[in-house]
Design goal:
heterodimer; A: mainly alpha; six-stranded mixed barrel; globular; B: mainly alpha; 2 helices; about 85% helix
Chain lengths: ~625, ~70
Amino acid sequence: MSEGIVGTPLDYGLIVGYFVVILGFGALFARFTKSTKDFFFGGQRFSWWLIAFSCIATTVGSYSFYKYSAKAFSYGFSSSMTYLNDWFWMPLWMFSWLPIIFFMRITSIPEYFEKRFDTPARVAATVILLVYMVGYIGINLLTLGKALHHLLGWPVFGAAAVVAVITGVYVMAGGQTSVIMTDLLQGILLLIAGFALLFLGFSALGEGEGLLAGASRFWEVLPPGHKLPLAGFNRPADFNSVGIFWQDCFGNGVAFYFMNQGLIMRFLSARSVRDGRKAAVVILLVLMPLAAIAVSNAGWIGRALVATGMLSAPEDLDRIFVAVADILCRPGVFGLILAALTAALMSTADTLINAVSAVAINDVYRPYLKPNMPDRHYLKASRWVAIGAAALGLLLVPVFDSFKTIYEAHGTFTGAVTPPMAVALLLGVFWKRFTPKAALWTMIGGSLAVGASFFLPELITPFAHGTPMFAESDTVRASFKAYFYIRALYAVVISAAIGITVSFFTKKKPGDQIRGLTWDSVRDAMRRFKGGEPNQKEGKTVRARLVVAGEGELVQVDAAAMERMKADPGDLVHVRDRRWWYGGLKSTHARLGEPTTAAGTCRVPAELADLGSLSKSKEVAVEKII
Amino acid sequence: MAWLSFWYQYLVGGLIFFIGLWVVFRQGEAGLKTRRQRRHLVLLLGGFFVIFGLQLALMLLGSGGG
C-alpha cells in the first residue's frame, strides 16, 4: 500500500459533510441547555437507549480502530478480550456505586472524595482526575492527527487542531445534551461502518460465491491460535492475558466505570437509576461485543486476505485498518469508514472535554474561586473551560507524539495515573473503616510507588506472573518501558496496602457523616434524594393528556393513574413526552401532588413544563421514580 | 497455556463478581424472596454466564482447530 493519500474526493466530501452535520447537531440541541445541570448532566432525563448508544461511542476511542485492528491482525480474536471483561464489576457498580452517585447528587468524583473523606482528599483527587482527563484528550487528539496524517498527509498537530476546534465548539454550545445526541449518531455510525467492513471482507473472500462462502473461507484460513478469545497467559510481553487482565479489567475497568468523570456524567444524565442499569446491561452484553467486532475485524479480515494472497502485510501494523478499508471499499464507502474513525475520536474527546469542564467548575471554580454566583455565570464559565480543555489537550499532543506508538503513550499514561485513585475510591465505597488520611495517603503513596517503578522496574517483578520485563522487539530497553501491563497489579497492591495500613492507625469518619456514601447505606441516599421514605413498590408507567396550568412544583394525575403507578403524593416522578424517540429530551422530574379529579390528564405547572421543553407536547408518559 | 488464561480470568474475575453479588444480597437488592430480587439475581448471573459462555464456546472452537 502506498504511503500517499488514499480515498477519493467523494470520500473526503463525505467527511466534510459529516463534520457539518455534527456541528449542526450540536447547535440544534444547544437550545435544550438552560442551566449547569443541563450542561453537565443533560437535566437527568434521558432514556436508557440514548445513554447506551452514546456510551458506546465514548467507549470506542479514536485509537480503537487502529489499535485493535493491529492486535487483531497479529493475534486474532483475543484482540476482543478487553471488551469482554467488565461484567465482573457490574454487581458492585450497578447496585452500589451508581445509586450512591445518583441519589447523593454527586456532580463530580472529587466531590465524592470531599463528602466521603475531607478537603485534602478532594484536592488530591481533583489533581489526579484533571491530569488524567486532559492527558486523555491530548492522546485522542494525537490519534486523529496521526490518522489524518496517514490519510491526507496533513501535519499531525494541524489535523489535531482542526478536530479540537470542532469538538470544543459543539461542547461549548450544547454541553452534555449535545454530547449525548452527537454521540448517539456517532455510536450508530461506528457500528454500521465496522460491520460494513466485515461483510465487505467476507464478500471479497467469497470471491463471488456469497457471504457464507466468504465467512467459511475466513474461518478456514485463519491460523488456529487466532481463533482463541484470550491471549497466551504470560507471553508475549506486549500481549499477554494476565497482564491485560490486571491492566484493563482491574486498572482501566475500575477507572472507566467508577472514576471516569465523562462516563459517570453520562450515567447521571439517565432519568433514573433503573434506566442507568438498563443502559449498562445493553452496553456490556450487546454493544460491547458488537463494538469489539467492529473495531477488530479489519485485522481479522486483513490476516485472512494476507493468507489468501489478496493483500500484502503492511510493515507498520498501525496501518492495517486503512490498508484493509482501502482495498475493500468502493469510493463513498471508504468515506463512511473514515467518518466512523473520526466519530470514534470526537465522541471520546467531547465527553472528556465536558468532563474536564465539570470538574474545573464544580471542584475548583465554584467552591474556591467564585462562590455564590448565579447559575448563569457558572454556565458561561463552563463553556469557556470546555474550549480551554480542548486547547490544553492540544498543547499535550507534541508531548505524547514523542512516544514510539499511541498505544505506548496511552498505556504508560493511564497505567501510571489511575490505579491509586481507583483503589482509594473502591475502599471508600466498600470499607467504612477506610479513613480520610488513608485515602489521601493511598493516592499520594500509590502515585509515588508507581513513579518509583519507572526507575526501578524490579519492584514489579514479584507481581509479574512470569511476564518478561521487556518485549523482544524492544531495541531500546529503557526502564520506563518495563512491565507494560502488569504495573497495574503492582500499583493496586501497593496502594491497597498503604490504604489499609494507614486506616488502622488513623481515625475514621463518624458513621452519620458518611451515610449514603457507602454500599450499605444506599437506602439513606435514596431517602435524602427524595426527602422522605422511598417508595419502591413496582408500578406501571401511565399515559395522560398534558394540561399546562398553574404554578408551583407539584404535578397531578388522577387517582386511577396513581394506583397503576403504585404512587403516593410526595413521590418523585418523571414526566416525558410520550413519543419514545425523544428519549427523554422533552421531560422533567417533579413531585407528585394530590390526585386531580380531571380523569386522564396530567397537570404540570407552566414553569416546570417550560423547563422540560414540554409546553408543546400533547400527551405525556408519567413514571414513578422513587 | 490458553486454558490457563481462561481459568485465571474467570477465577480472579469470578471472585470479584461473586463478592459483588454477596454485597448485592446483603443490600437486599438480589435474592429469592421478591420478584424484584429474583429479577436482579437472574440479570447479574445471566450476564456473567453470557460472557462466560461466549468465551468458552470460542475456546472450544479455537482449541479444536476449527
